Amino acid sequence: MNETEFVKEIASKEEAFSQWYIDVVKKADLADYTVVKGCMVIKPYGYAIWEKMQAELDRRFKETGHVNAYFPLFIPKSFLSREAEHVEGFAKECAVVTHHRLMADPGGKGLVVDPEARLDEELVVRPTSETIIWNTYKNWIKSYRDLPILCNQWANVVRWEMRTRLFLRTTEFLWQEGHTAHATREEAVEEARRMINLYASFAKDVMALPVWTGPKTASERFAGAVDTLCIEALMQDGKALQAGTSHFLGQNFAKAFDVQFANRDGQLEYVWATSWGVSTRLMGALIMAHSDNHGLILPPALAPISIVLVPIYKGEDERTAICTHLQTISARLQALGVSVKLDDRDNVRSGYKFSEWEVKGVPVRIAVGPRDLSAGTVEVARRDTLEKQIIPLERIEEYIPQLMRDIQGNIYRKALDFRARNTFEVDSYDEFRERIEEGGFFLCHWDGTAETEAKIKEETKATIRLIPEGEDPRPGKCMVTGKPSPQRVVFARAY
Fold first, then answer.
1. What is the residue range of 89's domain?
2. How confident is the prediction for the chain on average, in pLDDT?
3. Which of 405, 439, 467 lies at the terminal end of a domain, its last residue?
4. CA-to-CA distance for 422 and 416, rounded, in angstroms?
């Protein structure tokens, strides 16, 4: 295989975005399809990126006082029916276990379900864990002294999907779900706010992803929540992607499972609750927000390999000398706290290596040939801009840390500029219907009714992604009905 074959199979992002996305996922060795319909295999390189996300989020959770726990995968069916909105929201997505045993087919055709092994009550494979957790919290909470409870779990969930796409929408996916219990409404509201802000700062600082933050409309909020806060990002095809949510659950689940506590006056009150989560969908956001027609682009903060070292040589003697030299450079770079890989394979050409690591999004590539060896220099190529520079080896300790910061910042600025160019204020519904076809975020006035919201969704396939915060809430008139509107909301077509 020559050096061009690695990228030639990647579709053009501008011409076929959906195919481009799948090509990048597969060529960068992130994930693959499996025989189980709707599910995926996260390959080692893809999982390494998820582990970096996981580690940084987990660190931030613990900094804010949260602890990890683990709750059952299976939920009694009756639990889901305790909270009416919750069961209605998830009923069509649930996988259900009905039997607990297989048996040999009497006709000799392999295994069949034993009809005598039907469960007394069916078990639902968790689509989310509010119900099983609040049934558990009932045993943990008796007094105000038991509060708050600030639990998180890293887990897999199942939501039966008919139309799937790697990372973005799969039947089984990985996520974290925080579930907290509080003595007062104010504490719970503050918790929901704290966690959505944590997600927003993670997206910006780690993923180099600019996001809008704000509440969902009543029609779009989580099933069983009083209020849902979210972060929304813009992908390069002009569609929005919900990257994280935080829910103020009020006392809905506490009442459903009769979770009460004795306050300081000895009176019984229902507990106040939140839940919040992000999933492997963040991997999809990372790809679609930053990558190009050469493959994956990774912010240094999430790259499993920060720097790849590639020797350029002719003959075994040059190879030995240059690889020995690169081992020394590798040790110096690792001392800076960055992950380094020396690609000393002798069965592929250097051009092939360049293309492979480019597709995989490694932020920095350092190449050394015979001339560099004699001159005391290295060739440094950055993945985000594809620029190359020759620098003296003696400068490498000061150069690399600054380069990593520059790459991280540049990836964010590029995404932020893209969002700015594709965010529009529109007052006319006719103009909105025309321009929504091109994609982007649209700041428009809405009269606050579910009827108007549903009409816009039906006619344009666009939804209200959130009610933005931090913006000047200038009043106006709804673009559809002309009725008063307190502020603009963010519309987009979404994944």
1. 17-95+126-290
2. 96
3. 405
4. 10
Helical ranges in 206-337 per DSSP H: 252-256, 281-290, 315-334
Question: Are 360 and 460 contained in the same domain?
Answer: no
* Three-point CA angle 418, 420, 425, nearest 5°: 135
210, 351: one domain: no
Residue 300 counted as domain residue: no
Tell me the pairing of strands 484-485 and 488-492: unpaired
Show which of 265, 290, 315 is a domain's final residue. 290
Q: Which residue bears the tokens 């999004």?
A: 361
In tens, the pLDDT along 125-134 reads 999 999 999 9
In the chain, the number of structural domains is 3
Three-state SS annotation for 345-361: CCCCCHHHHHHHHHHCC
Q: Identify the CATH number of the domain in which residue 373 sits.
A: 3.40.50.800
Q: Parallel, antiparallel, or unpaired: how do β-strands 118-125 and 95-99 relate?
A: antiparallel
Low-confidence ranges of the chain (pLDDT < 50): 1-4
Q: Is residue 460 part of a domain?
A: yes
* pTM of the predicted protein model: 0.95
Contact 389, 38 (CB under 8 A): no
Measure the CA–CA gap between 29 and 329, rounded to whole angstroms. Answer: 27
CB of 411 within 8 A of CB of 299? yes
- 220 lies in some domain: yes
The CA-based angle 242-247-248, given to 5 degrees, is 155
The tokens describing 285, both together, are: 């956001």
DSSP letters of 25-73?
Answer: HHHTT-EEE-SSTT-EEE-HHHHHHHHHHHHHHHHHHHHTT-EE----S
**CA–CA separation, 25 and 267 (whole Å):** 56
Residues 448 and 393 in one domain: no
CB environment 135-154: b (16+ within 10 A), e (fewer): bbbeeebeebeebbbbbbbe
Express each pLDDT in 8-57 by its tens digit: 689 999 999 999 999 999 999 999 999 998 999 999 999 999 999 999 99
DSSP H or E run through 453? helix 450-460
pLDDT confidence of residue 394: 97
